[in-house]
Amino acid sequence: MTLSIRGGRRSRTPRRILAATTVTALAAAGLIFGVLRTADAATVGAGSYTTTRPAGAAAPTACGNISANPRQYVTGNAPTGAVPTNDWWSSLLFKRYNCAYSDPLHAHPMSFQPASGGLGVSYTTEAAISGTSTGVGEYHYPYTREFTLGVAGLNAPDVKVDGWTDWTVSPYWSDGARTLRATVGHGLPFVYAQVTGGNAQLSFPGTPTVWHHSGTRVGFSMRGHDYVAYAPSGANWTVSGTTISSTLAGRGYFSVALLPTGAGTSAARRTALMDSYGQYAHAHVTGTRVSWSYDQASSTVNATYGVTTTAREGSATGTVVSLYPHQWKHLDGGSPIAETYVSARGPMRNLVGATSFRTAMRFHGVLPEVPAVATSAGADLATLTAHLDQAASGDPFAGFNNDTYWTGKALGRAARLAEIADQLGRTAQRDHLLAAIRTRLTDWFTASPGKTQRVFFYDQAWGTLVGYPASYGSDTDLNDHHFHYGYYIAAAATLAKFDPTWASTNQYGGMVNLLIRDANSWDRNDPMFPFLRDFDIYAGHDWAAGHGAFFAGNNQESSSEGMNFANALIQWGLATGNTAIRDAGLYIYTTQSAAIQEYWFDSSDTNFPATFGHRSVGMVWGDGGAYATWFSAEPEMIQGINMLPITGGSLYLGYRPDYIATNWNALVTNNGGPPTVWQDVLWSFQALGDANAALTNLRANPNYPVEEGESRAHTFHWVRNLAALGRVDTGVTANTPLYAVFNRDGARTYVASNITAAPVTVTFSDGTRLTVPAGRTATTGAHTWSGGNATGAPTTPNPSPSLSPTPPASPTPGPTTPPVTSDLFHLRSAGVLSNTAGTAATTVTVPSAGGANHDGTPHNPVTFRACGLTGSYRSAGTTFALQVDAGTTVGAGIQARVSYDFTGSGTYSRTETYHYFATDPVPGTETYRDSAGLRSVSGEFRAMSNGCVRLELWNAIGNAATTVRVDAATAAAGQSTVRVPFQLG
């Protein structure tokens, strides 16, 4: 079994030794290809990579063939370009062990396994659980064949791939006389099939229970699970013992659907679902596609999951889509039916007739590092300085292995220390660390003839960039590229802030982008790499194994190292001005953080099997999860591998503070006491929920063994400052990606980082504003502090009273002006919409569009909100009258967007964007009204229950600022108002 995960001690497992021994044996047998005397380099700016595999380097291995052709199992119909790896269906192509067909493909709600006679189909609803509730244990919903979908007489020697889209795949069989093409995918309760050369056939291991047999439909059950086979018009089904077959009236297509029914479902309801699903039975899914966008004003990442269908008959365009918990809990529009499917990820809810669905996920910010509000003065500064001086002396790469993973760990450690040194104004230590990072990255990013160490090789056959020395199957199995390269990208992002020339595309920035493109290219038309290689778009998280060839499907252990990659993309995109990379990072970060809470932590206690006995898993598998790792049975490592590395991107671990205590208590129970290894990682996690306890643990154990990617300086900095700041507060957002809000005893500290060369003002959703100097991190609220890129000592923070372990109940998501009794709101200063008019009119400035076109997309918007709204919807629309003025400016155009959050959840599911208003060049206000017309609208109205309304104003075009009048006492004084279509009170 191939290693697919890493992290932790360098000498922790015999598996690693076996892997190395295997490579050595292959080399001795002369089976390693690519032994070279020279290397051909391709330049990228000032950097380069080799296009010839370095001497002695191993290559991807499939079916026993070194450097096997990855397209040998692809038909001519499949997309051109780099083949996908690291997917839920990768064992169809990367046939690591089963050289003819594949290992089980866990699509959910069904699982599949190709064989010579067709596609085996399984739906398992009872978990198989092994191990103990305190030791290593796992649960699986294993593939168990309920029938095979195929063609009578089919005996194919192998299965090929005829096509793929973002979350579907189409396996293809041919034995020379008969063919079968099936399409399956994540979230599809249908199997779509096309056949030639024989009758469509469903064959069973036993006699199925047939509960409907009429015309084009046959309904049957196996192991208590209900299916319906749909034939074309004019065809019928023949039932005979353990087979069901059809001539398909010579039309060559059919589909089989799994119904979300069970023992308690009435016959009438089962029939109704058969009819409902049947409307879409011949609308075969032929394409799936994700798109995403980042709404900076509301700090929301929106993702649309689209499905394309081809009607084999009829005119239906939709299908049935099954949603995972991380999707349906963030669903923006749509009404799932009551019935659900059982899956290894928890209950799946179903949209019938959908062509797409959309999720809206709130982004709660990341930081280069937590602010030094408590460690920049006094005894704590002395402690931190001593640790920092020790860590920053000498070579920060000493003692680390030279391979891609351990080089990455060293880079990550050095980058964290550099960020802390910068906050404290210790420029000598900072620059020493940055110089070491620059030197090591430049070495790795430079290829030269004969170079075999610290070099990247582009494998054109596989469409991948492999660093040598490789580790943990990153070469032979294409494992873990996002884990390894995430550290490189994160360190490069830190370096880019201080040395933008090095990070420019004509220097070494292009090589950093190449690493990103290899692991998760944001461009679906990338000529060198597959689109989002490691990130499973529909499952919402990465997969670690390149081949995915295990009976349990693919797997991923260290979800936190996947998040390290996502955070690195955000930071690098911001540092280099590449919004496409930034937004890809934001999409992966928000989606995967939701998936981690559901599938690694099950923090709502709804997804793991009830009898599993654990409150987290170390590894997620395609068909389940395991309280285990590839390298250790120690609870500290099983739980800690999904926490490291601790960075300013780790704040997502604190979104559910009550769960942190659950996780910690389980660790202590399973370990038989507090942790004895990886204490620094675990205390850092604990600090996000109870920082006082974590600080006590840290001070009581000064000689703890340091995890290799950590340092005493960083752990002390993290834990001590969280003890002052409190917990992550998800009730307030900001209009910049580099922010965080903390809450201690109800007192908030607002944090933002500015990596630009000019001051910026950040606006938080509760109206708080924070001006951040160039190149610094700053805070306001309970702590006022600024540090970073400093020449002197930062300002001293406010005193820090003790941290309460109990957070404030239900933080307010935005400004509220109670009581809310009227549908008419006045624009007030500080970003408030109020039922009460002001007393003295003033204006708020809406920033210039800067000569760019921002029509339809908020750009540096001014935002007004009202929350706490409860009432019924009236059959009407939003109206507004806004008093605006552009002075004597020509060609300005102000634009408005009104959004509704119906439950106060932070998700605005109704959005109305109006056409911009072209102001005149005459001083004096003009009235911008809703009569300008809707440019776009999404979502439907529904009743308000403690909801919110938000108005955003920005300049869509022009080169000058515009003002909007606020706080006016009367209409005659020029009131700006918004009227919402609700009966409030």
Sum this structure up briefly.
The protein has 985 residues and is of the alpha+beta class. The termini are far apart.
What does this structure look like?
The protein is α+β, with helices and mostly antiparallel strands. The chain has 15 helices and 55 strands. Strands 11-12-13-14-21-18-17-16 form an eight-stranded antiparallel β-sheet, with helices on one face. A seven-stranded antiparallel β-sheet has the order 5-6-7-10-15-20-19, with no helix packed on it. Residues 1-39 and 790-818 have low confidence and may be disordered.
Q: Give me the secondary-structure category.
A: alpha+beta
Counting DSSP E segments of at least 2 residues, the number of strands comes to: 55
**Approximately how much beta-strand content do the residues carry?**
25-35%
* Terminal Cα span: 63 Å
Assign an overall shape: globular
In DSSP terms (H or I, runs of 4 or more residues), the helix count works out at 15
Stretches with pLDDT under 50, minimum 5 residues: 1-39, 790-818
Strand order of the largest sheet: 11-12-13-14-21-18-17-16
Q: Fraction of residues in helices? A: 10-25%
